[in-house]
Amino acid sequence: MRKKTLDKIYEEYARDVYRYLFSLSRDHGRAEDIMQETFYRAYLHIEKLNDEKIKPWLFRVAHNAFIDQKRKSQRETIKERGYFEQEMSDMTSVEEHIIQKEQVQSVFQSVDLLPTQQKEALILTTIHQFNYLEAAGILNVSVSYLRILIFRARKTLRQRERTGADE
């Protein structure tokens, strides 16, 4: 079987990797920088990549590049939410659009307040639909620990929704 080229890999996964990195960083510029680093690393290791496991491998590289970048900057900022708000463009009325926009912002604020590992576990399994084994591999944790992270994240989000608390 013929291996995929880097161009093909980029076309197929760039959007998913970008969304993952944006969901972690909430910064378009930062997400683009880390995505560039991710695909640079893919270029360096393209001969060793197994075509069937490219997506989990790319997400793991993106995760590691994000952690490296975060350690360097030692700060995380929330700047833009417009990217995900564009996904709601099919709304029928202005009122519905505003209500949904507020709900999306509320959910993102709650998710942003989660501890980093819980946030990443939730994003990988719900938004990017990785199975538990793949997500655990990306985060370099066991599957049982990943389940604990997701359980705790969901429990925290439910508690916040019931109480209306931001923390």
Report on this structure.
It is built from eight helices and no strands. Helix 3 (54-73) packs parallel to helix 7 (132-139). It has helices spanning 6-25, 28-45, 54-73, 82-85, 94-112, 116-127, 132-139, 143-163. The mean pLDDT is 82. By secondary structure, the protein is mainly α. The longest helix is centred in the last third of the chain and has 21 residues, at 143-163. It is globular and about 50 Å long.
Chart the SSEs and their pairings.
Blueprint lengths: L5 H20 L2 H18 L8 H20 L8 H4 L8 H19 L3 H12 L4 H8 L3 H21 L4
Helix pairs in contact: 1-2, 1-3, 2-3, 3-7, 6-7, 6-8, 7-8
Quickly list its features.
single chain, 167 residues, mainly alpha, globular
Q: Which spans have pLDDT < 50 for at least 5 consecutive residues? A: none
- Apparent shape: globular
User: How confident is the prediction overall: mean pLDDT?
Assistant: 82
Number of strands: 0
Q: Helix count?
A: 8
Computed over alpha carbons, the radius of gyration is 17 Å
Span of the ends, CA to CA = 51 Å
**What's the order of the H and E elements?**
HHHHHHHH
Roughly what percent helix? Answer: over 70%
Q: How many strands, what sense, and barrel or not for the largest sheet? A: none
**What is the percentage of strand-forming residues?**
under 5%
The assigned structural class equals mainly alpha
